[in-house]
Amino acid sequence: MKKIKIGAALLSMMFAGVNAQTLKSPDGKFEMNFQLKGGVPFYNLKYEGKTVLEDSKLGLRLFKDTSIKFASEIAKPEDAKNDLNNGFTKTDEKRDSKNETWQPVLGEKKNYINHYNEFAVTLNQTSTDRNIIIKFRLFNDGLGFRYEFPQQKNLNYFVIREEDSEFDFPSDMKAWWMVADYDSQEYQYQETKVSEIPTKWAKAADANASQTLIKNAVQSPLMLKVEGKTPLYINVAEAAVLDYPASHLEVDAVNFKLKTHLTADRQGAKGYMQTSATTPWRTVIVSPKAEVVMDSKMLFNLNEPTKYTDTSYIHPTKYMGVWWEMIIGKSQWAYGQPESNVHLDKTDFTKLTPNGNHGANNIKVKEYIDFAAENGFEALLIEGWNIGWEDWFGRSKEYVFDFQTPYPDFDIKMLNDYAHAKGIKLIMHHETSGSATNYERFADKAFQLMNKYGYDAVKTGYVGDVIPRGEHHYSQWMINHYYRIVEKANEYKVMVNSHESVRPTGESRTYPNYISAEAARGGEYDAFGGNNPDHHTILPFTRWMGGSMDYTPGIFQTKLDYYFPGDKRFVKTTLAKQLALYVTMYMPLQMAADLPENYKKHMDAFQFIKDVAADWDDTKILSAEPGEFVHTARKAKGTDNWFVGGITDEKAMDYTVDFSFLDKGKKYEATIYQDGKDADYIDNPQSYHIYKKTITSKTKLPVHLVRSGGYAISIKPVK
């Protein structure tokens, strides 16, 4: 229990308002108070009079100069005089407000509402005569704040040792969390009390291709719940992570406090700053309804509008891929034998001994193109088309790919001509093997090749340790790299889908060609270590808060012993749940990930994947509970068609779909795809039932979801 803080809390309440500045949300339900206590900045947050955050400290610690030593350097007491976390006096304050409606290029709704009240306080550190601004924005769904550093005589260049923004909660809560890591977000979510995180943390991580764990810290977005008669759902995250490292959350399990922990480089530096500059926004989204938290667009609102003058090339895309068969081990990315020790500028790949199992070959790619075209898809991703895959992983090899030269059995011109003749565009794949420097070296030539052959989308990948060595996937240098590539892609009118990159935090508003990312434990893990049945019900409250994910659903053949007798691996969902994911997960770059041969056996169910939209005019979160279930309805862009999807965790559930979101007085034809009566995600995952029904806005439809099951509904107006 947090007993030791009660006295301090009472004293704080007695003197609250003496030196505090108050900010209220537009609807008046939130109240944020800021004050200096002994020269140290603090803030707190209340919702409808109930304390969400107790007085929480703000500030940053800095290195003494910009020529720092390595991470072994130990902070000395005298170094504290460089910090920006104490000795402040308030010199100015400004207030502002905004109520605007803006349209995302691609989004879950046609219009996003950006409505907030703002308070910006200027603080002067008397001993050093340095100024910082702390800016708060209070929305009707929560709080965002950041630090701003004006250009000034005594603060031009500085290096951040750590940012110490705190989130001090008054009580223990349920948390849905994953271990913090400088290099990976590909972990299973855990569901425990905040107080239990340290005892569960050590067993919450499994191995990854690149891994730098932060003990007793968790990743954001972090989903929390105050349980009881008046539950409260809280999401802690960040927005607009640009020219700054991504952050994690250190856990004080005794005092229920979280503190920002920035991703470091090899020297232990967190951020190299030059004024004028700003940090990302720290965000706290709060509601008594889980659906409101899940529906929040705060992270997007805290990003700047795009400066792109042309966004006409950015479009939703439904695609297939020569990919899943490599993931499950049926074919390979490499053309030559393993351990071929290839050199891109020296090896004659036509003389390599083929391994006989290369996936990206002319015959197979044409088969995929044929199936995709016959079924109305727009694009086909092909991985393993380019030379270099023989020694791409685990070598710390800088010059590993050139992103231009195809393997001998991949005729890039012929396949592009063949695809375009059938109305299919190919999606380029640029795996970097973590060698970001090499990718930047070849970026122009790679995108020029894409332009030459009519590719308008690229999937980038960052598997393995980062080069330049000593950087991490979420350190400042790599954050800047991701957006250098995105801006370069915009020069060539190319959309970007990144994998193993940093998680998005609303930046698609500013960089709308960054249409998707992986940045979490995606569908590929169904063939690796597995994804638990509750995984899909947590991701919309965490990873999806800041942007689209390329989850790669649509797996119909969920048992891998179908390919490899005796193989125990399986996708832990029913087939109907795989359909539902196309609605519960927002994916403007939307993949049908399974093999054509498996879709051909279930063309009646495949019809939903063919019909479902990838971009939306409206989204309604019908009902949701993190870790348990999600039910979502979406209206397709520019039409009167709706799609509904519902999923559950390892527990079966009954649910009644209320269609009151439909236009009154109209009739619709609904096609329902749901779990069969004998379906089970372990014993009988391919059992499903499809039927049609005429519905109106007054219709209420009962559905049954089996364990890790789901349903999907396609709704069209009756003319």
TrEMBL record:
Keyword Hydrolase attributed: yes
Sequence ranges assigned to domain Glycosyl-hydrolase 97 N-terminal in this UniProt record: 23-305
Keyword terms of this UniProt record: Calcium, Hydrolase, Signal
A Pfam short name: GH97_C
Listed SUPFAM superfamilies: (Trans)glycosidases
Every Glycosyl-hydrolase 97 C-terminal oligomerisation domain range: 615-716
Alphabetized GO MF terms: hydrolase activity
Entry-linked InterPro entries: Aldolase_TIM, GH, GH-type_carb-bd, GH97_C, GH97_catalytic, GH97_N, Glycosyl_hydrolase_97
Secretion signal span: 1-20
Hydrolase in keyword set: yes
Residue ranges annotated for the Glycosyl-hydrolase 97 catalytic domain, each copy included: 323-520
Residue stretches in coiled coil: none
Listed PANTHER family: GLUCAN 1,4-ALPHA-GLUCOSIDASE SUSB, GLUCAN 1,4-ALPHA-GLUCOSIDASE SUSB-RELATED
Assembly description: Monomer.
Protein name: Glycoside hydrolase family 97 protein
Source species: Chryseobacterium caseinilyticum
